[in-house]
């Protein structure tokens, strides 16, 4: 059964009994026993350092005990082995043990991209979702803008969620069903609520809490508090987006989400299905559940990339040389050159030079220059390699991509128009609503252009059009900020 949630109003309580810590300690003990019992017998290069002293083979029982919390082998050096600080032949033995441990704890994980292609990677057991995303960004030669995410996807259940940056990938994989998989994609909305909180928590949904000095009365939660029931324990569950709500689960709206226990193995009865009236309400609820579950850890995840950027800013910032600082604008239109002292005149001269260069380039292409492509053919294919261009996809497919990558203001993509093969369509997200703008070809003085405002503003190619609207809103509701990117692994 579905529970429809029109507004956000719930109380928070702390019921942490410490059971999770006991479970973790038990798992670590079992892991340590499995670690020592699964090690094969290998030749011992230092038999005099082990017990018995004459043992030529290093057996699992002769390994020093490890600390479950640190995951590294720790052993005390006998006092009979020389003076303080002298390790002698001990260091190679411990290095060998550490090497053996790392080899046996590499985990194989398969990651899928949006096109369905998979890539197998080997990761250590303590690798987080953020670290794996950084690894995939490096291997795929992507731009690292801290918006990549690892998605837990369950196609049979119609559920998916974005992993938090601090989550261990191996632990998440161990709790997944056989049909579950990891997806590597953009998610611009992962920390958007820290940048624009009013978008996720609108005033009409939180104003009543502020009026009561942050105190929620029982009467405001429910008319009869005895009917309150425990919905789920978020410590052992995660929040998922329902991507096939109406079709698969019979949801009353398209804005469904659910609470799925980690121990659930695909049983629909264990899912707690919820739905909201619109996308903003669903985002509000899911964000509130994330904050309730992880608390300050989410804000720390959000600040880590910014702190790294601050530390590297003075290393990556370009340093201007003395010759660059001494550059001045010059005018060579007369018999002799002169320095342009007026900054307004200098900027105007630079713009005129840019327009003159573009006209010369166009004229050379028309007359047949060294360019391998004619200008008209070049402008029709130059955008194909751009990340924001998605080719011949349907309107519904463009909606799906924008939904998956966050639905933040300025999220956009370009595609070929279905109604006019010579035209293109700009798909833009604004206020969590998706809008489409047709880009039509036009001609002036025998030269082809593109325009989305009926010829008022013309561009020679789509790259120039996108760059213009990234700087100027024009007729659009907002500037183009975040390109929808699909990367093949």
TrEMBL record:
InterPro entries, sorted: BPS-dom, GRB/APBB1IP, Grb10_SH2, PH-like_dom_sf, PH_APBB1IP, RA_dom, SH2, SH2_dom_sf
A single cellular component GO annotation: cytoplasm
CDD domains in the record: PH_APBB1IP (cd01259), SH2_Grb10 (cd10415)
Name listed for the protein in its UniProt record: Growth factor receptor bound protein 10
Any one GO biological process: negative regulation of insulin receptor signaling pathway
Transmembrane segments: none
One Pfam family from the record: RA_2
């Amino acid at each position: 059964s579905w529970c429809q949630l029109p507004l956000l109003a719930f109380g928070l309580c702390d019921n942490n009994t410490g059971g999770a810590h006991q479970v973790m300690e038990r798992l670590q003990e079992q892991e340590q026993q499995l670690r020592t019992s699964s090690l094969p017998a290998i030749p011992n290069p230092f038999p005099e350092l082990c017990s018995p002293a004459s043992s030529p083979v290093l057996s699992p029982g002769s390994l020093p005990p490890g600390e479950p919390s640190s995951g590294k082998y720790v052993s005390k050096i006998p006092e009979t082995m020389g003076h303080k600080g002298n390790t002698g032949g001990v260091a190679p033995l411990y290095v060998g043990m550490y090497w053996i441990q790392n080899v046996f704890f590499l985990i194989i994980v398969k990651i899928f991209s949006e096109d369905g292609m998979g890539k197998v990677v080997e990761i250590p057991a303590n690798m987080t979702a953020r670290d794996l995303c950084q690894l995939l960004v490096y291997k795929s030669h992507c731009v690292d803008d801290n918006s990549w995410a690892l998605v837990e996807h369950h196609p049979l259940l119609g559920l998916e969620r974005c992993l938090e940056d601090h989550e261990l990938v191996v632990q998440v994989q161990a709790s997944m069903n056989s049909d579950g998989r990891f997806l590597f994609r953009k998610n611009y909305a992962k920390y958007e609520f820290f940048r624009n909180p009013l978008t996720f928590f609108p005033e009409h949904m939180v104003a009543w809490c502020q009026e009561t000095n942050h105190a929620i009365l029982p009467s405001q939660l429910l008319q009869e508090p005895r009917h309150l029931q425990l919905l789920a324990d978020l410590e052992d569950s995660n929040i998922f987006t329902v991507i096939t709500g109406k079709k698969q689960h019979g949801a009353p709206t398209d804005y469904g989400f659910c609470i799925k226990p980690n121990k659930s193995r695909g049983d629909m009865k264990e899912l707690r299905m919820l739905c909201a009236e619109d996308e903003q309400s669903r985002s509000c609820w899911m964000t509130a559940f994330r904050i309730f579950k992880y608390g300050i850890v989410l804000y720390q995840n959000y600040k880590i990339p910014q702190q790294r950027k601050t530390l590297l800013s003075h290393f990556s910032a370009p340093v201007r040389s003395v010759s660059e600082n001494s550059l001045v604008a010059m005018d060579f239109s007369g018999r002799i050159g002169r320095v342009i002292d007026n900054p307004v005149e200098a900027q105007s001269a630079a713009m005129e030079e840019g327009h003159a260069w573009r006209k010369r380039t166009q004229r050379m292409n028309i007359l047949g220059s060294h360019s391998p492509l004619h200008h008209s053919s070049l402008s029709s294919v130059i955008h194909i390699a751009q990340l924001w261009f998605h080719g011949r996809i349907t309107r519904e497919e463009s909606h799906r991509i924008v939904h998956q990558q966050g639905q933040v203001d300025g999220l956009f993509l370009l595609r070929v128009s279905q109604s006019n093969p010579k035209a293109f369509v700009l798909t833009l997200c604004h206020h969590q609503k998706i809008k489409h703008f047709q880009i039509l070809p036009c001609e002036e003085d025998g030269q082809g252009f593109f325009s989305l405002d009926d010829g008022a503003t013309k561009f020679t190619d789509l790259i120039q059009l996108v760059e213009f609207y990234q700087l100027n809103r024009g007729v659009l509701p907002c500037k183009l900020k975040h390109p929808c990117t699909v990367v093949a692994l």
